[in-house]
Amino acid sequence: MDLVVAVAFAIVLNMVVVAQVRARLPGAEGRFLGRTYLQTIGLRYLLAFVLYFHLDAAGFAGASAFAATFWGDSSTYDLGGYLLSREWAGEVVVNPYLNRQHQSGIGFIHFVAVLYSLFGRNQLLVQLVNGVIGGLCVLVIYAIAARLFDRATARWAALFMAFFPQMIFWSSALYKDPAVMLAIAVCMYAVIRLQERFSLSQVILFVASSLALLSLRFYVFYMVVFATLGTFLFGQRRGAFRSLLTHSLLVLVFLAAFSFAARRETVERQRQYFDLRQVQVARADQAHLGRSAIAPEVDVSTPGGALAALPRGLVYLMFAPFPWSITGVRQALTLPETLVWYALMPAFARGLLYTLRHRFRPCLPILAFAGMLTVAYALFQGNVGTAYRQRTQITMFFFVFMGVGLVQKRLERERRAVLGRPAAVA
């Protein structure tokens, strides 16, 4: 019965999404995006069923090697959401997953609890819904790339989001990563729209998605806010009065929502995580807990130490796991993707350079956010596994720049072909 309910709900949900895509984007682009979305969902659902049936046969044993490799902290969100749903039903339960110091991921636990309250404890249903969230990330990244550049770039970005293995994997279990990526992407889309023209609907969309991000990964929320404020301070061309009015309204709405959603003591506790000494503690914990530590001898507790560690951290964040240092099954599975990632680096560099030269102002929100988060993760991440996982939040914007690079290379090749023809033919 769980299988029937999960599949039926997923079918309805995906029919609604595809219908909206076709209605909002008719013609060839609508057909392309609808087809890509269904392929996105198909790949994620295939892996979701493999995980579900394998783990179901083993009783979802968290101690098994398969569960430790592929299920990971899905057990945390499953059990935390289930306990919360029982609490909402009137039972007296102790839920340790809601009492952690920084409560990271508490929003996803509530999300799972809502689904369990409606449909019962159904892990497969959450997996399939997570696949839909991953598919929506593809659509939003397409919309961002199309708005900032062109349809060809948007197609490349959507295809990368749809078929890169890391994007597929995190959308196939009970991981919060797809929700984090979707919240970030929606925030950036709303900011880009607000750069063009003030819209109350986009303000509401930005505030709602940023507060959702606060409940999922709070430090990323603050970086989104900093990138947004920087964009509106330095990236506007409007008249002074209109610009001031737009900024004031956005800030007032955001502050009101933030004051309602975040408690003062929670904000004070979260602020401590931006202290370099706390970053060093977290980094050392990751290095000792994981088997693939990144420079455990590095000390980033001082500005000088952080600057010295930054280049090495950037290399690991951008290119790890290195093919020559792979250990374990999970890292071995990333090898084909890693090689493709390396092959796309020239396109990324070309696209980033083109963006800085020709599209800097409209792209300032994602440039600022991706730059800040890249530096933060280069300092914060202590082992290869967490660096590879958290990189997805930046990778989705890197895909846009890679698409730009590929399109610019094709245009350059076409221009050379035209210039190389005989004069009469030209």
Structure, explained:
The protein is mostly helical and 426 residues long. It has one domain (2-71, 122-415). The protein has 21 helices and no strands. It has helices at residues 2-24, 28-57, 65-71, 74-88, 106-119, 123-148, 151-163, 165-170, 177-196, 200-216, 218-234, 240-261, 264-271, 276-289, 303-319, 329-333, 335-343, 345-358, 360-380, 384-390, 392-419. Helix 2 (28-57) runs parallel beside helix 7, helix 9 (177-196) packs antiparallel against helix 19 and helix 15 crosses helix 19 (360-380). The termini are far apart. The model has no long low-confidence stretch (mean pLDDT 82).
Write the topology of this structure.
Elements: H1 2-24, H2 28-57, H3 65-71, H4 74-88, H5 106-119, H6 123-148, H7 151-163, H8 165-170, H9 177-196, H10 200-216, H11 218-234, H12 240-261, H13 264-271, H14 276-289, H15 303-319, H16 329-333, H17 335-343, H18 345-358, H19 360-380, H20 384-390, H21 392-419
Helix pairs in contact: 1-2, 1-6, 2-6, 2-7, 4-5, 6-7, 6-9, 7-21, 9-10, 9-11, 9-19, 10-11, 10-12, 11-19, 15-19, 18-21, 19-21
SS elements, strand count: 0
Beta-strand fraction estimate = under 5%
Structural class comes to mainly alpha
Calculate the terminal CA-CA distance, rounded to whole Å: 67 Å
User: Please, how many domains?
Assistant: 1
Helix content estimate? over 70%
Task: Sketch the topology as an H/E string, one letter per element.
Answer: HHHHHHHHHHHHHHHHHHHHH
Average pLDDT level = 82
Name the overall outline. Answer: globular
How many helices? The count is 21
The biggest beta sheet is recorded as:
none
User: What is Rg?
Assistant: 22 Å
